[in-house]
Automatic annotation (TrEMBL):
Similarity comment text for this entry: Belongs to the alpha-carbonic anhydrase family.
Name of the protein in question: Putative carbonic anhydrase 3
Any Pfam family the entry gives: Carb_anhydrase
Taxonomic lineage from the root: Eukaryota, Metazoa, Ecdysozoa, Arthropoda, Crustacea
Keywords of the record: Signal
GO cellular component: cytoplasm
SMART domains: Carb_anhydrase (SM01057)
Keyword Signal (UniProt): yes
PROSITE patterns referenced in this protein's UniProt entry, alphabetically: ALPHA_CA_2 (PS51144)
GO terms for MF: carbonate dehydratase activity; zinc ion binding
Signal peptide residue numbers: 1-26
SUPFAM superfamilies for this protein: Carbonic anhydrase
Length: 321
């Protein structure tokens, strides 16, 4: 007689427990960042996005980015598990030799600050943890090389301006032979970075060694930081060509822990709406070879649209007077 009741109450308990667990997971989840005091996270220019290669035309361009000091060997590279990601900082001697990028219609010089990774848990021997997806497909790993516009002195200032940040993003493919150069030695030191705030010093190498082999083809768009406060201050460059990582390096990342000792397990934000944004698929052509719609004309068109909109508003406002 008592048994069904007991099963019922156990069930009820499980339902309540599970619902609470799901709710508590949800209210901390990315879809609630906007209501948790980070209003920018609900903005119209959010990142990451899905890049639909069928939908976006290719723009040929001939003004390559000017990578400066990218081939200089760093005097020291430190990786730190900050509880959200594994972040690498590079020191240079002298310090004015920090790598920077200009040209390529960036409209300024952007100095390298740090790089970090986004990864996912392993499900059925498959890793998927990149933030940007290409035609709906999520790569195993994504690296963000964060640069600050030199007209702002600090990252805190730069993130408050629409021209503050440039992020170079590399998607990785899993490869059995090609080790990611940066994390080569982490097999040995991974125990040091596994706990929250654990850190390790890596073998000095140039920043260029972490880039994909071909950096001339990329997707470019206006977006945001992918963690709160989601400031819409980022010019995104997502390289079309992949970098390489071996399964051992992905395994190492998936063992890193949060402050509460739980595994970080996955740290990618879901893709956000593209809305009215234009995404550019930039493909390098030697000067004289440019045949398709010119890249600069393509990049200027949003500005023309803004001028057009301003003109329309001025016309409407004037006609009201
Ligand atoms: C950036 O903007 C936020 C929000 O408006 C403000 O609280 C903060 O002080 C600003 N930071 C800097 C360095 O200007
Ligand atoms: C690295 O970790 C050690 C030991 O916890 C700590 O003393 C040191 O300050 C850390 N270094 C950095 C750069 O965070």
């Amino acid at each position: 007689m008592k048994k069904p009741n007991m099963i019922l109450s156990i069930r009820l308990f499980l339902y309540v427990f599970l619902s609470l667990a799901i709710v508590s997971e949800c209210v901390q989840g990315p879809q609630f960042w906007g209501s948790l005091g980070f209003p920018s996270c609900d903005g119209d220019l959010q990142s990451p996005i899905n890049i639909d290669t069928e939908e976006i035309p290719k723009y040929e361009y001939n003004d390559l980015f000017n990578f400066k000091h990218y081939d200089d060997v760093a005097s020291r590279i430190t990786v730190t598990n900050n509880g959200h990601t594994l972040m690498a900082t590079f020191d240079y001697q002298p310090s004015k030799n920090r790598p920077s990028i200009s040209g390529g219609q960036l409209g300024g010089t952007f100095e390298f600050e740090q790089l970090h990774f986004h990864w996912g848990a392993q499900i059925e021997k498959k890793y998927s943890g990149a933030e940007h997806t290409i035609d709906g497909v999520r790569a195993p790993l994504e690296m963000h090389m964060v640069h600050r516009n030199v007209k702002y002195n600090t990252m805190d200032q730069a993130v408050n301006h629409t021209d503050g940040i440039l992020v170079l993003a590399a998607l990785f493919e899993m490869n059995t032979n090609n080790v990611m150069p940066l994390l080569q030695s982490v097999d040995i030191v991974h125990k040091m970075v596994e706990p929250f705030m654990g850190n390790a010093t890596l073998k000095p190498r140039p920043l260029s060694s972490v880039l994909p082999e071909d950096t001339t083809a990329f997707f470019r768009y206006r977006g945001s930081l992918t963690t709160p406060g989601c400031q819409e201050s980022v010019e995104w460059v997502v390289f079309e060509h992949r970098a390489h990582v071996i399964v051992g390096q992905l395994n190492m990342l998936s063992k890193l822990r949060r402050p509460d000792q739980k595994l970080i397990s996955h740290n990618f934000r879901p893709t956000q709406s593209v809305n009215a944004r234009k995404i550019y698929h930039m493909v390098y052509k030697h000067p004289g070879q440019v045949t398709a719609e010119s890249a600069s004309a393509g990049l200027r068109s949003p500005l023309l649209a803004v001028y057009g909109a301003v003109a329309a508003v001025v016309l409407v406002c004037n006609s009201r007077l």
